[in-house]
Amino acid sequence: MPATLEGSCRCGAVRFSVDCPAPVPYMRCYCSICRKTAGGGGYAINLGGLSRTLKVDDEQAAKSVFHAEIRQDDGACRLSTAERHFCSLCGTALWLYSPEWPQLVHPFASAIDSDLPKAPSSVHVMLRFKANWVEVEAGPEDQTFDLYPDQSLEDWHKARGLWAG
Fold first, then answer.
1. What pTM, to 2 d.p., does this model score?
2. Which residues are registered as beta bridge partners of 17?
3. CB 120 within 8 A of CB 23
4. In whole angstroms, what is the distance from residue 32 CA to residue 23 CA?
5. What share of the chain is helix, strand, coil (3-state, %, to 5)?
6. Residue 60 confidence (pLDDT)
7. In this structure, what are the phi and psi dihedrals at residue 78, rounded to the nearest 5 degrees?
8. Residue 28 class from Cβ within 10 Å (0-12 exposed, 13-18 middle, 19+ buried)?
9. What is the per-residue pLDDT across 89-139, written as a single tens digit (0 to 9) for each?
10. In sequence order, which residues have a C-beta less than 8 Å from that of residue 6 and are 6 or more positions away?
């Protein structure tokens, strides 16, 4: 049974809940978009929730959406299809939704108010885009990747007996 996670922005204008079969915060993303929109430590951690279960209480209509520009290796930019939801009053990053995976929503662990389990290890992704001041604190069981691993969020959780779905 998926865990129901409760989350909110810093000012309390936006509150949400979502059922999450993958509630262990294990993947640290160092890409410039995550780092700059949700990662004060040089990375962001997002979880995997079921989009059909997302419930949003937005009393002040404060939730906004940001589509980041993605700079290509050749210098060209394209607009990301991913929707980064945030509070327009306090700036808290809330969750990411991508139409390429419509069944999922990815709440940022930093916006979750529910207790989250401690990860037995971490996966560090998008290290190609890491800021030079960021020190990767990888443990002995951690994995590191320049871009993305082949293993999905679901597969990582299932391999460790942590899938709650």
1. 0.91
2. 6, 55
3. no
4. 24
5. 15, 35, 50
6. 84
7. -135, 150
8. buried
9. 999 999 999 999 999 999 999 999 999 999 999 999 999 999 999 999 999
10. 15, 16, 17, 112, 113, 114
